[in-house]
Design a protein that fits this description.
The structure is a single chain. The chain has 28 helices and seven strands. It is elongated and about 150 Å long. With 602 residues, the chain is mostly helical. The two termini are 80 Å apart. A three-stranded antiparallel sheet has the order 6-5-7. Helix 20 runs antiparallel to helix 22.
Length: 602
């Protein structure tokens, strides 16, 4: 470079130098020199050095001899005065010769010289301040002001409120609502860090890296649905119940309003961020390009994005609520199963006891002589609790105990066979108790055969306790009977549940040898499992009313009878269970609603 050049002459030389033909990569380096250097002499020197390194010092040179022009930098030219005048003349003639073609170039060299599209873009949105003649440009102070828009007390108040909302808000909000709060908190934390980065006067490339998390958090925040309603309505409504936060809620609201309107505050947060990229890359980029590069995933809407300590509390609540839901669901299914299988209801929902007719008739006819059996006697044994309990115990003794205590005769395809359903001794203790209870009941009926007692009085006495000693002794027998019936029922329920599992398994996956063998093997204990009721499809051969029925049907009837006895004689556990369906349904629905709110799929 000629050291005698004036500044105005140097600008002309710089123009010629800038217009030289180069590869896109070389031209990008030249543009970088122009963007980072404001002194024209330094620009010329650095560009010449770049051209020399790339072998471009003579290619398409602004002073190549083939064009008949002088080299302004070496002082050679057509003018006899040489030196500076030759360089000036050369630049002048070149400018005239190319004036027309330059006008047709997109942007042209003058456009690039005076900042070009970058300055035009930055001036339009207020993010870039151009220097003298647009030859040097920088980030506008307005960008920094945008990130300084929150007051210190607003920042402190907002962070405190958001932290409490993140700690407790999950108890009231869905994951989608809660995660908006988390997204705003994450964005706010990064937003307030931006001004120090910009004040360091570092390179735009560093601004991009320093604010990368802020950029991602802003994108994530705006990808959530309903952020305005959650932050402006749901959040304050939740926090208003926290008395210690009332004094600072106005500051939170002001901060939220500011952060939600960043895009409508010139120069706008998107253009401000874009300015970092435009200055760093020396070319205009759009927001979609930046978002694509950030590779931000879609926001999580079906589970809470909570801190680890809060997540543990949420998970514990979900486990507990799911347990309540499952337990109530199982209880309702059990109640429905009991009502469906073991009770008959009339249209009004009242339990029907027609099944008693056969049992009462059988027991009364075997207990009394045929001459005294009449309708009145039969009705008395159905209407009076002490007589009905005697019938129930007697029928159980006659029809059920033989099946539980030893061998029985069954018939299948015309052949009779002696079989054992249960291993000997399995029910011994219960049977011994039953024998004592049966003897006590028989003595009571024999001793107080003329006692008249109805079910209305009986139910009142079960609630308050009787005052009459005769009735007291009967109520004592009732309670013993209820306890014993329930013990038998618990074991028989397991046996029949196991049997149904075995039948379902057989129906769904075919016979399995191990399970299939249980059809003939006596039951050893009442433990849950998959096994058949032995000989369930064979008919019983006996001298009682169960004769000719299959073993399976007999046990289904035994279960039904015992459940009805417990209901008739007011077993509180069963009565409460059967009447608790509405409450259990409400609790199950409440737990289900709570789980669904927390994003749990059932």
């Amino acid at each position: 470079m000629d050291p005698t050049l004036t500044r105005s002459q140097a600008h002309k030389v710089f123009g010629e130098l800038y217009r030289k033909s180069r590869s896109p990569e070389e031209q990008e380096e030249v543009d970088g020199i122009v963007a980072t250097t404001s002194d024209v002499f330094v620009r010329i020197k650095r560009i010449e050095e770049l051209d020399e390194r790339s072998g471009n010092s003579t290619r398409n040179s602004a002073h190549a001899s083939a064009d008949g022009r002088s080299d302004a930098r070496s002082g050679r030219g057509h003018s006899s005065s040489g030196g500076l005048s030759g360089a000036v003349g050369s630049v002048s003639s070149e400018k005239k010769a190319r004036k027309k073609s330059d006008a047709g170039e997109a942007g042209g060299w003058l456009s690039r010289l005076f900042g070009g599209e970058i300055v035009k873009w930055g001036k339009a949105n207020g993010t870039i301040s151009p220097g003298f003649l647009g030859m040097s440009y920088a980030l506008s102070p307005k960008v920094e002001h945008l990130f300084l828009g929150l007051k210190e007390d607003q920042i402190v108040a907002s962070i405190k409120c958001l932290k409490i909302a993140i700690r407790d808000g999950w108890e009231a909000w869905t994951p989608a609502q809660y995660n908006v709060i988390v997204a705003m908190y994450n964005f706010l934390e990064e937003f307030v860090k931006v001004p120090p980065y910009l004040q360091k006067k570092s390179r735009p490339e560093e601004w991009i890296l320093d604010t990368l998390t802020m950029q991602k958090n802003y994108v994530i925040l705006n990808m959530h649905p309903n952020i305005d309603s959650v932050l402006k309505e749901d959040l304050p409504h939740f926090l208003i119940s926290k008395p210690d936060l009332s004094p600072i809620l106005s500051k939170l609201k002001a901060a939220i309003q500011y952060l939600l309107t960043l895009e409508s505050r010139p120069p706008g947060i998107k253009n401000s961020v874009l300015a970092f990229y435009v200055l760093g890359r020396k070319k205009i980029v759009d927001w979609d390009t930046v978002v694509s590069e950030l590779k931000v995933r879609e926001p999580v809407l079906d589970r809470y994005r909570s801190p680890e300590n809060v997540r543990k509390v949420i998970e514990a609540k979900i486990v507990k609520t799911r347990e309540v839901y499952t337990r109530r669901k199982n209880e309702l299914e059990e109640i429905d199963d009991i009502k469906t299988k073991y009770f008959q209801m009339d249209p009004s929902g009242k339990v029907k006891v027609d099944f008693l007719n056969e049992i009462v008739g059988d027991v009364v006819r075997k207990t009394y002589s045929e001459s005294v059996v009449n309708e009145a006697l039969l009705n008395a044994h159905k209407r009076e609790p002490h007589r009905l309990l005697f019938v129930a115990l007697k029928d159980f003794d006659t029809c059920t105990l033989p099946l539980l205590s030893g061998s029985i005769t069954t018939k299948a395809i015309g052949t009779s066979t002696e079989v054992i359903l249960f291993k000997q001794g399995m029910f011994n203790s219960l049977i011994d108790e039953f024998i004592l209870l049966m003897r006590e009941m028989e003595l009571y009926i024999k001793k107080y055969k003329n006692v008249s007692y109805n079910f209305n009085d009986f139910m009142e006495d079960m609630k308050k306790g009787p005052s009459d000693e005769v009735i007291k002794s009967f109520i004592d027998i009732v309670r013993k009977s209820i306890k014993l019936f329930k013990n038998f029922l618990n074991d028989l329920r397991v046996v029949m549940n196991n049997h149904m599992l075995a039948k379902n398994t057989e129906a769904s996956v075919g016979q399995k040898d191990k399970v299939n063998r249980t059809k003939e093997v006596p039951i050893e204990n009442a433990a849950p499992g998959v096994r058949f009721l032995p000989h369930f499809d064979c008919e019983l051969v006996s001298n009682n009313r169960m004769n000719g029925r299959t073993i399976e049907k007999i046990f289904e009837e035994i279960m039904m009878n015992v459940y009805n006895y417990l209901y008739i004689f007011r077993d509180m556990e069963l009565t409460v269970k059967l009447s608790s369906a509405p409450r259990l349904q409400a609790e199950m629905e409440s737990a289900k609603k709570e789980l669904e709110r927390m994003g749990v799929k059932l």
